[in-house]
Automatic annotation (TrEMBL):
Name of the molecule in the record: SAM-dependent methyltransferase
Pfam families the UniProt entry points to: Methyltransf_25
PANTHER family attached to this UniProt entry: TRANS-ACONITATE 2-METHYLTRANSFERASE, TRANS-ACONITATE 2-METHYLTRANSFERASE-RELATED
Organism: Streptomyces spectabilis
Domain Methyltransferase residue range list: 59-157
InterPro entries: Methyltransf_25, SAM-dependent_MTases_sf
Keyword annotations of the record: Methyltransferase, Transferase
Signal peptide location: none
Top-level taxon in the UniProt lineage: Bacteria
GO biological process, one term: methylation
GO molecular-function term, one example from the UniProt record: methyltransferase activity
Keyword Iron: no
Keyword Transcription regulation included in the entry's annotation: no
Amino acid sequence: MYTPNPADWRESNRRRWDERVPIHLASDYYDLAAFRAGKDPLRAFERAEIGDVTGRSLLHLQCHIGLDTLSWARHGAARVVGLDFSEPAVEAARGLAAELGLTQDRAAFVAADVYDAAEAVPDSSYDIVYTGVGALCWLPDIRRWAETAASLVAPGGFLYLAEFHPLTDVLDDATGTRIEHDYFARDPWVEDGPGGYADGDAVTVHNRSVEWQHPVGEVVTALARAGLRVDFLHEHDVTLFRRFAALEPRDGLYRYPATSPRVPLMYSLKAGKPRA
């Protein structure tokens, strides 16, 4: 149900994510054995849209256990830094980096709130500031996020965002074929359910979560006001999991059947900072 902003939103979310770190590490969803063996969890459109990262520095905001962050290092980034508010997640990411033989000069991880990133990360600017899928819904203030992220983009560098499309939040939960919710909702969505996307049967204690819906226009406007120039906004007809019963698996992703009308399920954007 929708409620006024709860004062405990950050701590509730942190406790939920902290508890789920060991569940995620053991899950088939993240499949750490395959990752250790070289499997790339990055989406093909992300690799294509970001391009060659060889020799560049990359900051990953809200990095969770660091699989995407470390993948960019595998793709040749000279230095990657991951930031997440969950200390267990950051510790797991550091452990994975060590397993891969990446020193802190190549891959560093910081435990801090994303709004405090400018003060928490080791460098003042990065060639690429990256935010992966499923991050923005945990933040109440997108304008503050955009200002923080933009401040960390080096002149001539860019921010890249890949996210679930907020249009999916207005569709009915069962089939994803009917509009049932308000696209412009501003109050947080408070839930209290066990398990999670990586293991729906996991027994969990810290189940309260607080999330926000951010229309695409709000995100783009916030980045523009923060001084970045939007180079592209792409919408994608695929998603990472079977959110709606109507979706079908294909090539490791999910989409509507070819006979059904399509709606955007994810989006990505790139926004650059002009050189001084």
